[in-house]
Design goal:
- With 310 residues, the protein is of the alpha+beta class.
- The protein has 7 helices and 14 strands.
- The chain has helices spanning 2-36, 145-156, 166-178, 192-201, 222-225, 239-246, 273-279, and strands at residues 38-44, 67-75, 80-85, 89-95, 100-112, 115-119, 125-129, 137-139, 214-218, 230-233, 248-252, 256-266, 284-292, 295-302.
- A hairpin with a 4-residue loop joins β2 and β3 (80-85).
- The chain starts with a helix and ends in an 8-residue tail after the last strand.
């Protein structure tokens, strides 16, 4: 009787143990499935000061202002966040194959009355995920900041961002950037409102990424020589090597465009009020407005002080 009872007990214990092990295995599988449903990315911010985009060029790099910190904006399917950092890298997790966007705005110092104040002049670097490359190490690009910012705007309008081919649109921007010769292609000169509206309505066309109305202004033209004697630094980082190589800046017709002066790299010998004023006061910028070839205005302005609103 005891032997029969003992066998029953042993059988029950073995059966219970098998069930227990099976549950552990199933839970483990479920956990692995959950983990497999996430993409983990290691994000690297651009170098500051920015590297020379034309490595073979004998020209010096622009004298960029000192970096204070980065303003980071991240949007994924599950969360949106903004914060500051001085780190060169960060990690984000997204749902598997779910679109996400990252923006990094450089906040720099400007001098004012022997003290440092912050200014947010430069356009952001960015990236939209997942990218065409199946990589977990992602380097933010200045050329991809424009479309990443539109991604954020589309999400605010409750547009299902997964319904748009962001990679194809970015490839169009990259192609136009490489073909910039006489007039530098600046995607920030595209009509952002029209692009956003047509993405949401499903009527987007590649032609909307044309920077219509762009013109090139040579800094050695007679109409400019008496206004500025130094290279200008564009808010769109990739344009600055073009400015150094050609001494041309890109403007949008009938629209004011702000530049800061690179006082360490002057190329016009004559002295004048504009140049002396800007070079001795780094908290000033210069705004150009192109109305016609013979009607180009230049105005000295204070650079706006950055407001910490987080």
């Amino acid at each position: 009787m005891k032997s029969t009872l003992q066998k029953f007990i042993n059988s029950f214990l073995n059966f219970s143990a098998a069930i227990f092990v099976s549950l552990i295995f199933l839970n483990s599988c479920n956990l692995n499935e959950v983990l497999a449903e996430e993409d983990n990315y290691e994000i690297y911010l651009p170098e500051w000061p920015p590297e020379n985009f034309e490595s073979s060029s004998p020209l010096p790099n622009p004298s960029y202002p000192e970096l204070s910190r980065w303003l980071i904006k991240v949007h994924t399917k599950n969360y949106t966040t903004e914060y500051y950092t001085n780190n060169r890298s960060l990690v984000i997790n997204t749902d598997k194959n779910s679109p996400a966007a990252i923006l990094a705005y450089p906040v720099t110092f400007i001098s004012h009355n022997s003290s440092k104040i912050e200014n947010q002049y430069f356009k952001p670097a960015g990236k939209i995920l997942p990218s065409n490359k199946n990589e977990n190490k992602i380097f933010l690009s200045w050329q991809e900041g424009f479309l990443a910012e539109i991604f954020f705007e589309a999400e605010k309008c409750n547009f299902p961002v997964e319904n748009f081919n962001w990679n194809k649109a970015q490839k169009t921007i990259d192609t136009k950037s490489k073909s910039s010769e006489e007039i530098f292609y600046n995607p920030w000169f595209c009509n952002k409102s029209r692009i956003l509206e047509n993405i949401i309505q499903g009527n987007f066309k590649e032609s909307y990424l044309n920077a219509t109305g762009s013109i090139s202004l040579n800094l050695e033209d007679d109409i400019i020589k008496d206004k500025i004697q130094a290279y200008l630094i564009s808010s769109y980082i990739p344009e600055n090597q073009f400015i150094y190589r050609t001494k041309n800046v890109t403007l949008l017709k009938n629209q004011k465009e702000l530049f800061i002066s690179d006082s360490n790299n002057a190329f016009i010998s004559q002295n004048n009020y504009f140049s002396a004023h800007i070079n001795s006061n780094p908290h000033y910028g210069i705004i150009f407005e192109w109305k016609s070839k013979k009607n180009i205005s230049a105005e000295i302005v204070y650079l706006p002080i950055f407001k910490d609103e987080l």
